[in-house]
């Protein structure tokens, strides 16, 4: 399942990188939801919208980015994939999302369907690192397969020239550059569009659909015992047969395992080139068109059964793995070679130091030799003068002096021999210095390469600092919005305080109105008592009593604006309402 997951991730990576980014440089949440729903649909994975909403909730750590989306993709989608999905449909969905944005607008010699198949083949052959590229070795492998399928000859010299040009600029090609390369016809000159399309389809069937062999053959029925022509397709664990090569009407399958076998049969019933495929529960008699086809099918089926017994992958997948292992081995050897070169460089530096020491010693020896030569010449002059003066005095002294001169001449010859040896050593030193100069030039070349790499690193670092500045600007904008909300809250609090003051003023006015009401009420009671007393007196004098009922027995209420329009019970109810509002505001 690990290999399947890596293959799925490559197609999903193309679809994800084709999504539009917002101003903050992230993929919008709605696009990720649509992508996740489509992936669940084509991969036959149960879609869990609750988990999706929970994972994409709005918070400071929301996963609306590539790094944040990957945990959800692994946990809720890829880990649930069982392999029971249509790979072509899955790749076509991812292709639909990314092709329109990335596919070249220039006319190509291949159709959109062929471009889709080349894209799927790229995902199969590309390296397991992002951004995805296909290395020159895999490009050569693919172009050789296409050339072989077209029945043309492979132009190795032409590809070597292209490979040199490619290696000088980058490590490999992207999917869209590979499509442009094949669609340009650079390596399929002289071939028509149909031939190129058939070659792409054949390579696609082999590498992606695991079709090991296909073709028309006759099959003997199990019930009617009649012979019918069928289109057979051999895959790593199954042989499917159809009515025709369009694969629309499937008639059956022959399930292969390690217990199956295939054997040739003699001609019978007027049928030739017969062979038998034996399985545990059933056997199938098949007739090929000729002996060559018969032998090819027997060998292909037997190879497939042997791979099933050994538990090995299909040949093209095993070959791809071996090529990757070989590249990794070569890379390790290259790294080891670089390490050895560094060690040799260090040894060379040490050797240069030793040569410098020897050179200084030789210079000191030459200085000492010059000093000795000077002393010798001076001594020789002194001896000659002395010899001229004493020549006539004493012959014995002359003889001794001649002996001394002969001895000095011998020493001089030895000295000259030593000087010649020193000159030879000096020439060797010059050659060593020339080697040192060449080594320094090589070192300067490497240093320039390192400087270029440092410049590229500086450019990347500047880009990262630019992204950091954009993030700082976003944070400052959020702080400004927070300050604006704080100002609005302060304004609302001030308005609430003013309303509380007005409410307290109204409460004071209400209390004053109640006090005035009490005073007026007392005056009315006094006036009513006086009136009653006066009525009694009138009745007593006149002998008549006439009752007058001016209205309700309840006393009238007086406010600052005149007689009240409500009763005392209503006034008490309003007092309770005011007190409740006042308590709530406090």
TrEMBL record:
Pfam families: EF-hand_SWAP70_N (PF25530), PH (PF00169). Residues 316-537 form a coiled coil. GO terms for cellular component: cytoplasm; lamellipodium; nucleus; plasma membrane. CDD domains: PH_SWAP-70 (cd13273). GO terms for molecular function: DNA binding. Its main location: membrane. It comes from the Eukaryota. InterPro entries: EF-hand-dom_pair, EF-hand_SWAP70_N, PH-like_dom_sf, PH_domain, PH_SWAP70. Keywords: Cell membrane, Cell projection, Coiled coil, Cytoplasm, DNA-binding, Membrane, Nucleus, Phosphoprotein. SMART domains: PH. Residues 210-306 form the PH domain. It is found in: Cell membrane; Cell projection, Lamellipodium; Cytoplasm; Nucleus. PANTHER family: SWAP-70 RECOMBINASE, SWITCH-ASSOCIATED PROTEIN 70. The SWAP complex consists of NPM1, NCL, PARP1 and SWAP70. Phosphatidylinositol 3,4,5-trisphosphate-dependent guanine nucleotide exchange factor (GEF) which, independently of RAS, transduces signals from tyrosine kinase receptors to RAC. It also mediates signaling of membrane ruffling. Regulates the actin cytoskeleton as an effector or adapter protein in response to agonist stimulated phosphatidylinositol (3,4)-bisphosphate production and cell protrusion. This is Switch-associated protein 70. It comes from Nyctibius grandis. The gene is Swap70.
